[in-house]
Amino acid sequence: MTPLPPLGLYLHLPWCVQKCPYCDFNSHALRGPLPETDYLTALLRDAAWEAPTATGRSVRTIFIGGGTPSLFSPAAIGQLLEGLSQHLTVAGDAEITLEANPGTVEQKRFEGFRAAGVNRLSIGVQSFDAGQLHRLGRIHGPGEARAAARAARAAGFERFNLDLMFALPDQDLAGAVADVDAAIALEPEHISHYQLTLEPGTAFHARPPALPDEDLAADMEAACAERLAAAGFVRYEVSAWSRPGGACRHNLNYWRFGDYLALGAGGHGKLSTSDGRIQRTRKVALPRHYQTVAGTPAAVAEAWEVPADERVLEYLMNALRLVDGAPRAEALARTGLPWSAFAPGVAEARARGWMVSDPERLAATAEGLRFLNDLLGLFLEPATEAAS
To answer: Which pLDDT value is given to residue 214?
Structure first.
């Protein structure tokens, strides 16, 4: 019997006021009234249908993402969380996160989300520069971003995250640092700081803006890292910084190859079984279609089992993003593989100085984090024989 990893729950609420040109998520600009009641009903039907797969397991984290979940009313979020507890066992100390757009919230709304059971917010600021926000298609300005952070604190949220991007169109080093300084001044417990990339299928990919070159982007990352560290933030993942104890537990579960149910249009799930199988699923993407088929097998657009010869790379793509990596014993338990499946790639990575030499831990060195894609490339060759 293989021990099962922790279980999280992801809920996808797919509507936004408008689609940002860099976004490749399953999000849809709202046309007409928000179908709050119909979508909530569909999510709870989906939860009831998924519940047997979580028998005997408690949900330790819930993440409500999108889209812009803060478009939904606090009352709807409260009904959703209450309904979920009727189908799933939710741990008493579960971390429950809601993504929020500064352009769709104010303090009373935050107070309502807090009363509904949400105990962590992730606020999509992206930048504090008005010109950059306009280029990025955001519906808020710098003042609204600052007001949202203050409102979160005033509403009683002890933990909230500010989401920032760097290497924005025509951005210089001073602009990137100024964004981080502005975020630090608002005293969040967590700052996500990631580089803008041009993803296929986005407006930016079709009509690329002028972005900083690789050297300037690296300088931005390094300078911002210095600012964050000096302010007392600890980098625990490639793009995530937190105060001590403020790491996002839901995302940590992803990065450590934990399990998660997924409800909502386009939601991706992962579940392990006690006999060593790992299955991934994807729900149908179109919201209206999802609302029709939720709670039936037709809601699953795709389901596949992760074969043994792909598990090493899948595991390390997540775990090596963590600054501390993961224990060797956990890697073997979560993948169900022997050490021989990891050993050749790890030996090569250590020889190149990309992974630490600690025999009980799989972790990238500082140079390995910098060249993470090259490091992961060492594990592209399937080790079928070793994994069997």
So the answer is: 94
